Amino acid sequence: MIIVADNMQVTNPDVAEAISTRNPEPLEKLVKACIEAGADAIDINPGPLKKNAAEIMTFLVQTVRGVTPNTILLDTTSAPAIEAGLAASEGRAVINGFSLEPEKLVHILPLAKRFDADIIGYVLYPDSRVPTDETEFLEITLELLAEAEKAGIDPGKLIVDPVVAPLIWENGVAHNRSLLSFLGRLPELAGYPLRSAAGLSNLTTGRGASAEKKRLAERTFLPMMAAAGLSMVLMQVFRKEVVDTARACDVLTSPRTIFSWASLTVL
Amino acid sequence: MIIVADNMQVTNPDVAEAISTRNPEPLEKLVKACIEAGADAIDINPGPLKKNAAEIMTFLVQTVRGVTPNTILLDTTSAPAIEAGLAASEGRAVINGFSLEPEKLVHILPLAKRFDADIIGYVLYPDSRVPTDETEFLEITLELLAEAEKAGIDPGKLIVDPVVAPLIWENGVAHNRSLLSFLGRLPELAGYPLRSAAGLSNLTTGRGASAEKKRLAERTFLPMMAAAGLSMVLMQVFRKEVVDTARACDVLTSPRTIFSWASLTVL
User: Fold this and answer.
1) Which end of chain B is more exposed for a tag (fewer CB within 10 A), N or C?
2) CATH domain A2-263 topology
3) Cα three-residue angle A58-A79-A3, rounded to 5 degrees
């Protein structure tokens, strides 16, 4: 399972400040810390970027690239920002992402073709509603695959994100149960090992719980997704016990591991 | 998921000492502590019991019953001990267990019929070899079901235990992966919600790893089994983070929960 740090987001005041002052130093420090904490890839989430979108994303991608050759995820709804990010990333960038929302199909999806880039497709209705059962997850996924095909994109470039629901949502638990069944049936549905991604932080979003309870929920749900075949998890990588869990998931689900306790790291 | 404490076993020197001196006090203390730690049921494992089998099991069951009305698992290969345990347990005892081994089919399986008791069936070949892939798990389970039927036992009384493999076994990881697929297909195979049990301590048996790594492996594998539908886990209940995980599994896989953070306990 690829661990993607989603720590670099504009909702973090230090990141917002560094972006608005174009100060690379705190961002470089953050990226280094993420890599040390176990990140295989870095998600750059500068928000929707109404002004200076391309220039800001170029600044951010160059800043990350100055620290690491690891994969970058371009996490914004701004097509110009994604385009600039793809140009600046020297390959190894993933578009994060598109959905059936017409705006995204028109402006974001074609960038995957143009830059031959991987792209994450959100399993959401065009109006951003979430599906409620396994059948709905499957139907939307087929539409994402059809749209990608229409846009001339190699299906191997697609990564689906079934969108983890916050537990505090009225149907959050039921949604996440359906998500697990869906992940388990994905290879059969696609007829090839279609990759999947999930944002774990969504699970415990909101107030009303201690950090300890949130980590417990995250480190319990992650192995469930891993066993169902999840390929990529977006998470806050400074949550050590959750990173340990992600690595342990790899060891326990590996089709080829000759087990050794040394392969299980407690970071 | 029912949490069964497997702490009361003869391999624990204090337990062995209490058994040989018929001293109930340390055992009562142990059972109380297990219940406080979150045990829903108590597994009594006095070993194979060559001498005084019935008398020892009667003593143990009465000792546990003096502390708690919770379900007792009678975990021994001695049929006379199981029989005595069933008689002493005032209902709510589970036979743990039988397999396709002829000795057990003849002497242990019929006790389930006679006492109308639940019985755990180990998914093992008659010579105690473990199955290696999902198909073998399924075939053995069908044989367990057939043997139970032949013995006149209501299939609803059967609980299958696919036997978690130690990670350090040559094929341990692969075996446990097959176990997960098997658990997921169990309801479809049986045509009804056939219950399952698994001994988590097996996973990390042996030397060569820190307690921290062992707990990491256990709390990572348990949610995988829970998502696949595991009904009952045998475990050392003084491993707090694993008990927390078992409870969190229940919350995350519940078909009916209206989620509240209060339902997630960090014991």
Assistant:
1) C
2) TIM Barrel (3.20.20)
3) 70
Domain ranges of chain B: 2-256
Taking a C-beta distance cutoff of 8 angstroms, is the pair A42, A32 a contact? no
- Res A239: pLDDT: 95
Across the interface, of A170, A216, A253, the residue whose CB is closest to B244 is: A216
- Where are the alpha helices (H) located in A119-239, listed in sequence order? 134-150, 172-190, 211-227
What is the spatial distance between Cα B168 and Cα B214, in angstroms, rounded to a whole number?
12
Q: How far is A94 from B35, CA to CA, in rounded Å? A: 50
Across B127-131, average pLDDT = 94
Chain B closest-CA separation from residue A236 CA (Å): 18
This complex has an ipTM of 0.93
What average pLDDT does the segment A217-221 reach? Answer: 97
Q: At what angle do helices A134-150 and A172-190 cross, to 10 degrees?
A: 50
B259 contact residues in A (CB cutoff 8 A): 167-169, 172-173
**Predicted pLDDT at A69:** 95
pLDDT given for residue B257 in this prediction: 64
CA dihedral for B103, B108, B161, B19, sign (positive or negative): negative
Rounded CA gap, B121 and B127, in Å? 14
Positive or negative: CA dihedral B167, B170, B174, B179 = negative
Judged by a CB distance cut-off of 8 A, whether residue A167 touches chain B is: yes
- Phi and psi angles of residue B131, each rounded to the nearest 5 degrees, phi first: -70, 160
Instruction: Report, at the CATH architecture level, how domain B2-256 is classified.
Output: Alpha-Beta Barrel (3.20)
Q: What pairing do the DSSP bridges indicate for beta strands A93-98 and A118-122? A: parallel
Split at pLDDT 50, 70, 90, the class of B155 is: very high
Mutant choice from A179, A204, A259 vs B, greatest count of B C-beta within 10 A: A259
| Rounded Cα gap, residues A60 and A37, in angstroms | 20
Closest CB to A252: pick one of B213, B224, B245: B224
Where are any strands of DSSP class E within chain A?
Answer: 2-5, 41-44, 71-75, 93-98, 118-122, 158-161, 195-199, 232-235
Helix, strand, coil % in chain A, rounded to nearest 5: 50, 15, 35
